[in-house]
């Protein structure tokens, strides 16, 4: 590095250190204002707060009032209803096959590539064509991992052309 770059880098490091020191100094009284923030007393955080993964789970109907149907953009629905948390429940509702509706199903895809390409070869069916009738069926987000959902009808045509796919990655619910 030349002298100008070293000087600029040194200035950046000094500014970052000064900012960190300024924030730390401004918050030096947290222990008396916000209680025992470093958990050294008898009042530990797990005694004050409910279990973060079970306390306030949501129950969401996939697609909202549109349910699980051809032509609705479920990726946008997932973005608009994010964030999702561990132990949230997704409810898939759709009409059983009849003369006026298309049959639908729900598959859990194994990875992003399968999701992007609507490749159902290694997917696991979690809801057949009759599972979504009535109150639908529930899927609980139990693990911290990405979940890729898609309709598997007509060899993935509903996924490819009907926008019937979405992905979620549940977060861990933290309480402070």
From TrEMBL:
Q: Which SUPFAM superfamilies match?
A: Cupredoxins (SSF49503)
Lineage top rank: taxon: Eukaryota
Keyword Signal recorded: yes
Q: MF terms per GO, please?
A: electron transfer activity
Q: Which PROSITE patterns match?
A: PHYTOCYANIN
Q: Which UniProt keywords apply?
A: Signal
Query: Does Nucleus count among this protein's keywords?
Result: no
Do you know which InterPro entries this protein is assigned to? Cupredoxin, Phytocyanin_dom
Q: Where is the Phytocyanin domain?
A: 58-172
Recorded protein name is: Phytocyanin domain-containing protein
Signal peptide positions on this chain:
1-26
């Amino acid at each position: 590095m030349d002298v100008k770059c070293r000087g600029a880098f040194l200035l950046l490091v000094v500014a970052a250190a000064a900012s960190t020191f300024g924030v730390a100094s401004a918050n030096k009284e947290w222990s008396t204002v916000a209680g025992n923030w470093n958990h050294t007393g008898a009042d530990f955080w797990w005694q004050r707060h409910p279990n973060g993964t079970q306390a306030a789970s949501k129950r969401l109907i996939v697609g909202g009032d549109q349910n699980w149907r051809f032509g609705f953009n479920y990726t946008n629905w997932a973005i608009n209803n994010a964030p999702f948390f561990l132990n949230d429940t997704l409810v898939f509702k759709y009409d059983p096959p009849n003369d006026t509706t298309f049959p639908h199903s729900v598959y859990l895809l194994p990875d992003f590539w399968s999701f992007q390409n609507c490749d159902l070869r290694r997917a696991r069916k979690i809801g057949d064509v009759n599972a979504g009738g009535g109150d639908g069926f529930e899927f609980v987000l139990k693990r911290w991992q990405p979940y890729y959902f898609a309709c598997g009808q007509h060899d993935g045509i509903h996924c490819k052309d009907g926008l019937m796919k979405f992905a979620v990655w549940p977060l861990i619910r933290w309480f402070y």
